[in-house]
Amino acid sequence: MQGNPTRPRHATRPRCCCHDDGRSPADRTARRRVATVTPDLLAATHAAANTVDRPWTAAAFAALVARPGVIVTGTAQSFALVRVILNEAEILTIATDPACQRQGLARAALHAAEDAARARGAVTMFLEVAEDNSAARALYAAAGYGPMGRRAAYYHRPDRPDRPAVAALTLRKPL
To answer: Is 164 exposed, middle or buried (0-12, 13-18, 19+ CB in 10 A)?
Structure first.
């Protein structure tokens, strides 16, 4: 048996439909939004996107989305999971299938999450990002998130003996 048996098989991941197929980006986005995003699909995308951290399970996603104030935006290929409590929102996770990266899908899911949080009364969005996650840090910087704090040795990297833990950067953005 090949691969990691604890991770969902690649065949269970949604097929990426973000590549050029002759349709306009708006048409492709509309088609992606038709698909229902289930906890199983969220877990498959999260597992594919998270090569460093432990991916969340379908059961964990099901429990989260059932909670009050939790919002999922995006598609099965790229999504944002946000929790709104009173006037604050927190990005719990953002994930994009590696086959669909560099297409603007995470940016679209992030902007949709900000709009949804704002509609529910949030005036500020918070998040944590691993200091070594340069792609996510670039996404958040381009979206206007600024530094708030740093938590040393927050994310464990047991597969990296040279750097077994990295800091979490806490960021915020007024909505």
So the answer is: exposed
Paired tokens of 25: 């980006």
How many of the other CB atoms lie within 10 Å of CB of 118?
14
pTM, entire model:
0.78
Report the SS3 class of residue 112: helix
Res. 159 pLDDT band, cuts 50 70 90: confident
Q: Are strands 165-174 and 146-156 parallel, antiparallel or unpaired?
A: antiparallel
**Cα 78 → chain centroid:** 7
Distances (CA, A) of 121 to 88, 115, 127, 173: 8, 10, 17, 14
Task: Convert the pLDDT of each residue in 22-32 to its tens digit.
Answer: 443 434 443 34
Q: How far apart are CA 57 and CA 43, in angstroms?
A: 5
Name residue, tokens 């269970």.
Answer: 12
Spell out the domains of the chain, with CATH numbers in brackets: 18-174 (3.40.630.30)
